[in-house]
Amino acid sequence: xxxxxxxxKRVAWGxxxxxxxxxxxxxxxxxxxxxxxxxxxxxxxxxxxxxAAVLDYVDYRWRRSIDQxxxxxxxxxxxxxxxxxxxxxxxxxxxxxxxxxxxxxxxRMVAHMSWGDSFEKALQSFGERVSTSLTRRSIPLVIEASxxxxxxxxxxEPLGKFVQSTLTAEKERQxxxxxxxxxxxxxxxxxxxxxxxxxxxxxxxxAELPMLQAALLSPEQARTLFFHMSVIQALFSGLxxxxxxxxxxxxxxxxxxxxxxxxxxxxxFLM
Length: 271
Prior knowledge:
The chain is mostly helical. It has helices spanning about 5-30, 35-80, 85-95, 100-115, 120-130, 135-150, 155-205, 220-245, 255-270.
């Protein structure tokens, strides 16, 4: 997975929001008052959310891969230190191995040192580029260890264990919260089932009774209302699923897109 820069996310948001505004404006001009108008609004929401959801997922996979390879990197540095290498040489040796996306960042760090940057400055640049939660915690300790000298392995060995235990705890947390994410999906599909059955067994049949037509919503009005409710339910249920599953609201955008499309197809073909 490639790294997603913050400016790429801003550009994606800007382009997608611009396109969604164009779709909404077109719908207001040409389709206002027509049943197809709501479908264009849903299309605008998907256009606005989908690129950001994809980039957020790619960035999440990249950051997770970086963190997962940190314990292996620290073990390699400890082994190199025991053979008599200095810390910069140990990092250079580690950059020749495969650590997923972490390898490219290590090579850039080695290139900075070859251009004349100090190890500390190159390491700080590395931290600014990567900027995962574990690297932000680890780099200050590595810098202090390089300043103090002595037996570096006494710092890297417990640091590697700390990173590994943090990754294990995060994996356990995701395993424990996965059922709650599934509950969000189940609740949404139960909502869709209830809405469809209510529409078919109540609104459609009641519309055939002349005495109740004035007191109830027409089938078209009910269909529009349920469509709006499903869009709101899908959008916010996805955000809740992302918050519970991965800890951030932005991680829920992909869930929102899936639920929006599923809700649209269900209501389109079953109601």
